[in-house]
């Protein structure tokens, strides 16, 4: 068990910056999720930590010890699960899971015991004698997961470990994985591009794009206070609505954003609440059972390519008709401001003075 | 419905006819060798004008006379032993050198590996008819004239390049992921090689063994150049030297020697064949 410290890490492939100046400090026992779109460098970052890639520059520390290029993967005592599972085809499920234990010269009965414990946890006991080629994708994934957890490494690196499970298995496995990690308390870096998984599992989430970490914070921080436009629009389903500067709300050069679930009919708020109202022209209503999505535009902001979306919970029984203009509103405290040029989040106009006083 | 069934039968029959054709083509030389080995001379040497004589059956009682000649009046058993010795030694040397070389070229030398692999393969293409002259100098310097060791030293010069190139292809097919996983799982590169990679390369190594076997068994020029004593010859050299006397061909004994040499080889090949076909087991990665 150990903390992972990453300082200004770069990994370039022939000029392509797969990892482009990443700083990340994962505390001992923490569960950190790397979240980002495909190709943003998540796997590369993980491989660099594991010692499979040499960093172009920068530093990685594990438990205070600098992992230079002379520290081979086996000496880092890190368990990693590959996106491709990488099961040994000539070994049975048992043989696969026992393989890392054999490297440690673990006694036979202890190996047996640990393997049984792992397969029970992930519900693959009945496959112990099978070969990987006779397993389904989801089963292989669980074998790979077992192999990663049987020993007690300094850290777990898991690359999309649940991507191939069906929705139900995924929920169970997520639960088991989280419980397991809390039990053993081993530092975990978990890669995914599924934000539900990221929000549910991570103590903290590092949101990545194009080799850079855009924000590193708790799920609530990342969701409530996105550090920039990328994070604001990448996280949340549907993503945050962004309005080009509206005179009344913000000075020029600023974008105003709010989440679809905060954008509700004016009548849903009390008379004296501090809200910002909009005239919302609803073009289409999508009924999804537990909620309704509204697609439309604001009078002040017409862009058919980027509709303004409202997400009404089923609880809200208000009638909303398509092709009509309605009075909608957002709590002023839920408005987020971003710099149009840099994309960085800015303090709300007028609040700067209040902050300065505090 | 019945039309499809008919077509299926027709296709079946077609497949069997084709298979039968190939089997006949492949097996006929063996049949001819066996036939000739056991035919009496008067059944073998027949006037060309005798059109009633059917050549592919026994027209007179079979005989063991040719085999007796082979085993009692030539050094054939000794040649077999010599061949076996040379083959085993060369196979060992080739495997020990070519397997690690192929692995390093496939994995460690990066983009250089490909070019170097081809370069090494090209050396295999230089014919022995050019090389035997400088080699005979070398063999003389090493003091190995008329010794089986000269063959053990010289044969790897063509088996190693060929086999290195051959195993390279097998090592390339090992998923890189697996090696990395094994390194993560706590093994050194050497450990990874022996515990993970080698399993994939087994068909490749068997192929190397078979090819080395074949290349060495059929080699003639170097053997002819370096070996002069009859009791140090290999089968491929001894048989034509001892059983073709002037323009007299001892066809029965020649064929007997070929038959006895080839039968164990055919059996060994067939045993290995299963391993080839079994091939690389898939299912290591996402499916
Ligand atoms: N060995 C390599 N050589 C060249 N480019 C590479 C190499 N490995 C990765 N890349 C590039 O680096 C970038 C990041 O790749 P990476 O595999 O880390 O993405 P990822 O975030 O894991 O994506 P995904 O979610 O699809 O797995 C990609 O653009 C990829 O093409
Ligand atoms: Mg990846």
Descriptive key words:
heterodimer; A: 358 residues; alpha+beta; Rossmann fold; OB fold (Dihydrolipoamide Acetyltransferase, E2P); 2 domains; 5-stranded antiparallel beta sheet; 10 helices; 19 strands; 27% helix; B: 287 residues; mainly alpha; MetI-like fold; two-stranded antiparallel ribbon; 13 helices; binds adenosine-5'-triphosphate; binds magnesium ion
Characterization of the model:
The complex is a heterodimer of chains A (358) and B (287). Chain A is an alpha+beta fold. Chain A has two domains: 4-232, Rossmann fold, CATH 3.40.50.300; 239-346, OB fold (Dihydrolipoamide Acetyltransferase, E2P) (Beta Barrel), CATH 2.40.50.140. In chain A, 27% of the residues lie in helices and 32% in strands. Chain A contains ten helices and 19 strands. Chain A has a six-stranded mixed sheet, sandwiched between helices. The longest helix of chain A is centred in the middle third of the chain and has 18 residues, at 167-184. The model of chain A is unreliable at 352-358 (pLDDT under 50). With 287 residues, chain B is mainly alpha-helical. Helix content of chain B is 76%, strand content 1%. Chain B has helices spanning 2-38, 41-44, 65-73, 76-108, 112-124, 128-142, 148-154, 156-172, 176-184, 189-218, 221-226, 235-243, 251-278; strands at residues 244-245, 248-249. In chain B, helix 5 packs antiparallel against helix 8 and helix 9 packs across helix 10 (189-218). The chains are: A alpha+beta (358), B mainly alpha (287). At the A-B interface, strand 6, helix 3 and helix 5 of A face helix 9 and helix 10 of B. The complex binds adenosine-5'-triphosphate and magnesium ion. Residues 42-43, 83, 159 of chain A line the site of magnesium ion.
